[in-house]
Every structure is written in C-alpha cells, then in structure tokens.
Amino acid sequence: MDHSNVFEQADAGGVGSVTVAADRSAVITPVHSQPRRSPEARPAEASVRTLDGLLRAAGFAVDPEGVWPLDGIGAMNHHWRVRIGGRDLVFREYGWPFLPPAPARARREAMVLELLESADVPAPRGLAVSDNALLATFERGRVLGEMPMSEVAVALGDAWYDVGRAWRRVHEIVPPAEVRAGLLGGPQREMAGWYDRVIADVHRYLHAVEHERPELEVDAARVHRLFVAAKGMLEARPVRLLHGDAHLWNVLVDLEADRWTCTAILDWECAEAGDPVWDLVALHLLRRRDVGPTPQAFFDGYGDPGPAAVWALYELLHHLWQAIDVAAWPSPLPSHRAATEYLRALPGRLPRLENQVGPARGS
C-alpha cells in the first residue's frame, strides 16, 4: 500500500482531532513519570511499513482513507487514528525506552485485550500485533476525567455505576497459568508473588523519598516494619487481572439512549496480575485535576471494595510514589499535593495503620 497521499490528507486536517483517554502509563514506578512529548506530524517510513503489515494481517486489502496523530495522549508511545473502509482504528507504536523490549509489551497487551474481550469488558479489541505495534479498534466517548466537574459526580451517576461494573468484570478475570507469570509484577519485572512486588516497591519508594523528599521526614524503618507485618494479609489477597494504570483519564463514557455508560477502559500496556484493591486505590487517588473523590455510584456498581486495612496500606504506598513522581512534572498535580499532605501527617496516621495490621508474625 502507498500511504503517501493519505498522510498529505492528514496534514491538511482530515477529520480533525479527537478526544481520547491519556496513556501516561503510571504503574507504580517513577520511571514511567516522564513529561509528554508532542506527537509526530506523520509516521516514519518504518512505521508506515509496520502499519501496512498490521492492516494486511487484520484482513484489510485496501488503502486507508486517512491517518491522523492522536494529539495529547501518550508519554513515549505513538498513537494514530486510521480510517479504512469507513471504519476507525488505532495504530499504537511502543516507544518506552525504560521497559523491556517492545515485543514483550505489544504482545502482552494483545493478550490482555483477548482476556478482556472474553469477559465482555468494554475495551478496545486487538486486531493485529507485531513486535513493536498494535492495531486495535477506535473507541468513542468522552474522557471521564475531563468531564465538567458539575457533571462528574452528579449527572454522571449512571456512568460511574457502569464504570464500577466494568472494573468488577476486569477483577473477576483470573489470568490463565500460562500468562499469569508474565503479568505478575507488571511490565518491568516478574515476581514470585504479589507481596514480593509490593515490598519491592516499598523499598524503592522509601529510599527515593528519603533522598529526594527529606523535608517530609518519613520514618522509613517504621513504614517498612508495617509492610513486613502485613505480609500474611497481603499474601492472602486474590490475584486477578489488574489494569496497572487505573485513572479517570483512561476511561471513556458516552450518552446512549439518554443514559451515560462506560464505553471503554483504555491503555492496557501496564496490565499485571495482583490484588484488585490496588487498582481501586489508584483509580480513587490519581488525579490530574481536582474532580473530587470517587462517587458512591462507582462502588454501587463495583461491590465490595476490599478490606479497609489493605486499602490503607496501598493508599500509603501510592502516596509514597506520588511524592517522588512530582519531580517529573512541570507543576504539581492534585495527586502530588495530596501525597505531600498525607505524608506530612503520617506520624499521626501510623498508629492506626499499625493497629489495623497487627504485629509481624514471630514478633
């Protein structure tokens, strides 16, 4: 296929820009926290060849009518909207320099999309995958995190309920044994178990906070003892499919038949296997702007959010991460400010957390 004229049409404006969820890939590790870069004006020649191969693999035998960059999404990955045969698709190229080789990421996301489709989760459908790219369906809707604040909690009650139901379906997925090891620990590393992943992050974030945010005066030894004491509790948690980058900017909603519904949960590159409560805490706390707490309608749709003690532990871990994530942004986000406030008050919070968790086994 010769796409040169297609890209000239795209430069001329084409169908215009679209609103889709952001792909900032914030699994709980600071290497993901990189400032966004501007999308390329047109794919490179190698990317054109990759797209051509994916379209053929997906069964398309005609040239696309247009290819447009999806503005404002992605930190390092490239995203393109492709119109072919009157249908809109998304061409996603993986560009993270921090993670393992791209084949692991492209194919693992395609694998996850298959799991989601089998569970009837509203998400893109994978159509073709290569070592470095994915072709998927284009999902329409409005980004939940960008909705007017007056609508987010009140008028969108139906949407929040539907988002809760969708996330429950995600967390009911038990990754098959042959793929579970590849998901456990997220895209950076494989772990022997979920607790190993948690305690590794505790070590890393405490070390980083001590050196990068000493003014917070976090008692690292005491926090570490808390998570050691919680080992049995966290090892007993169910291991299910996690999104790994759960926030409102990866959720699309739309008005259908006078009712708001969740049309898609996007960006599954960082999916992993672990405790569903981790996703819920991230969804509740990660904020690019202040849209308030997660409404009750979400939990009405989702059901039981898990033990309070487990929620509190992940909340602490999340705030440790956000306290160092702030360095990667031009100005602090609401999540960063909340983390600073939380950690400054941590000495008063720790006794209750310790009472919830109890002493370490053998102590």
Could you say how many structural domains there are in total?
2
Helix content: 40-55%
Distance between the termini: 68 Å
Query: Whole-number average pLDDT?
Result: 82
Oligomer: single chain
Helical region count? 14
Task: Describe this structure as you would to a colleague.
- There is one protein chain.
- With 363 residues, this protein is of the alpha+beta class.
- It has 2 domains: 4-137, 2-Layer Sandwich (Phosphorylase Kinase, domain 1); 142-357, Aminoglycoside phosphotransferase (APH), C-terminal lobe (Aminoglycoside 3'-phosphotransferase, Chain: A, domain 2).
- 44% of the residues lie in helices and 13% in strands.
- The chain contains 14 helices and 10 strands.
- The strands form 3 sheets. It has a 5-stranded antiparallel beta sheet with strand order 1-2-3-5-4, with helices on both faces. The chain has a 3-stranded antiparallel beta sheet with strand order 6-8-9, covered by helices on one side. The protein has a two-stranded antiparallel ribbon with strand order 7-10.
- Strand 1 and strand 2 (78-84) form a beta hairpin.
- Helix 7 (194-212) runs antiparallel to helix 8.
- It is globular, with a radius of gyration of 21 Å.
- The relative contact order is 0.14.
Key features of this structure:
363 residues; alpha+beta; Phosphorylase Kinase, domain 1; Aminoglycoside 3'-phosphotransferase, Chain: A, domain 2; five-stranded antiparallel beta sheet; three-stranded antiparallel beta sheet; 44% helix; disordered N terminus
